[in-house]
Model the fold of this input.
Amino acid sequence: MASTTPVPEHKLSESPNSRSIAVGDWTVTARTNPISNAVECDALQIALLGMPLPEMTFGNNSLELKHQPSGWNYVFTTMDALKSVKNGELTEGDGGVKVGYADAWLQSRSTGPLSQVPMPKTAPTKPYDWTYTTMYPGHALASSSSLISWQTADSDNPSHTIPLAELTRQDPILFYAEIPLFEDELHDNGASHLLVRIRLHRRDDLTPLTDPMWIAKALTDLPPEATQTSGAGTKWRGLGTKLDVATLVQQK
Done:
């Protein structure tokens, strides 16, 4: 049966490294570029106060959402995502982890056959979260309207909830984008990937892609005592789900 949902008036634009859609009061622009070159990486590392960069850093990628009537402009960028990674000594809840064989290796150096072998000379390095764990939620540009403020969502207010029923409905998609910000193989100890996804349906409102991978959803549904104490014990403060809302108004 054909969908009866009307298609809103919209305009799609595309260039070699960006795609955008203007629909209703919104303009969404997704920029995807090659991995940053050496000069760009050097500049980014200086901005991050010397923190080593992920193996694949897409410093020119971004997602930008603009609400025309209010002047509100919200973006997701690689630099700001990396600025949210802990750069310095890790404390409880920062998200850094130590690989499982680290303790076994240290034990073998102190009590095993290798205990008589001199430890190799090492140079001190600046500590940082080598897993690139970040709680970056995006940010409003400085040029955006200062009248916009975020507040914790009210679970009893239907307008503050994510429209999951609409997300699962088989409506045609007007616009979809997946923007990688950085990736790292963590020295063959796993992988760290940060990307942003967005999806727009046949409606005048902006609908984010909120269906996470099954493992991520399972982790956020677990109680804190299971994920932060009896589990890995990282006590990472980023576990769980947090929903904030903002009311956009037309500028006078």
